[in-house]
Amino acid sequence: MPLGTLDRTPPPFFRQGPSALTKLVFFSALALFLMVADRRLELTRPLRGAIATALHPVERSLLVPVDGWQFSSQYLRGLQSAIDGEAEARAQLARVAERASRADLLERENERLRGLLDLRARLSVRAQAAEVLYEASDPYSRKVIIDRGLRQGVVLGAPVINEAGVLGQVTRTYPLSSEVTLLTDKEAAIPLLNTRTQLRAVAHGLSAGAGMELRFLAHNADVQVGDLLHTSGVDAVYPPGLEVAKVASVERRAEGGFARVLLTPAAPPDGVRHVLVLEPIGSQLPERAVSAPAEPAAVRAVKRGAKK
Questions:
Q1: Is residue 180 within 8 Å of 169, Cβ to Cβ?
Q2: Which of 131, 173, 167 lies closest to 153, judged by CA?
Q3: pLDDT per residue over 269-281, tens digit each?
Q4: Which of 48, 260, 284, 296 would you label with 234, given CA atoms 20 to 30 Å apart?
Q5: pLDDT band at 122, cuts 50/70/90?
């Protein structure tokens, strides 16, 4: 190739143009001009509106995952808050129910205690309050243990009552406790008086311990369902006038000669906690004066002869 045909111009990399400082000053001045012009003349406002309108669907589509995540987080937090609130409400409801139950029990216990105090004031015999500790372990008897014994002056045969009526009788005493046989026990017996007819009878506990009955009562005796039976006081143990039972059913047997009369105790023995232990009325009666034994007639004759 001839030397005259060669391109002797430098490559573009080495071409000299405006300096970097010149470019910086130019573009800075242009940016400042555009900002001032946009501020004063609002030249780019339509352009910004058009670009914002064109990019709005893109922005909304890009915000969908973010909104979904925030909604899911809020839903889960709300669900957990609702579960926690329900658990707290149930716990609070249980506490309120427990307090209401305790208040109801205390109210009923206070009513029973007030009834005992009022009954104690109306009784003419000495009485002391006692608490039922537990029921005897014998499954074939109806007996309970109270927290009063010999040291508190409890004696054998002492009647035990509550505000509803007679419960039973002390049949065994210990220094600090006593055993009470309930009227529904198969070995219990108590003399009664029918308040309607003044008929006297004796009630016995049933073998199953589920109630009481009047035994050896004539089939034509004047006894009706609903008659109230009180203590008669003739046994020198129970004070007269204490409510004992109510006639539940009458079955007359002409061929047997006796009527079967079932009773419902006035004081249900189950669930009793506070009772009154009475002193038997026989122990409060004055003792009979003991008279000297009569001397034989022969001895009296000898003494008269000696005097002469």
A1: yes
A2: 173
A3: 888 888 989 988 8
A4: 260
A5: low
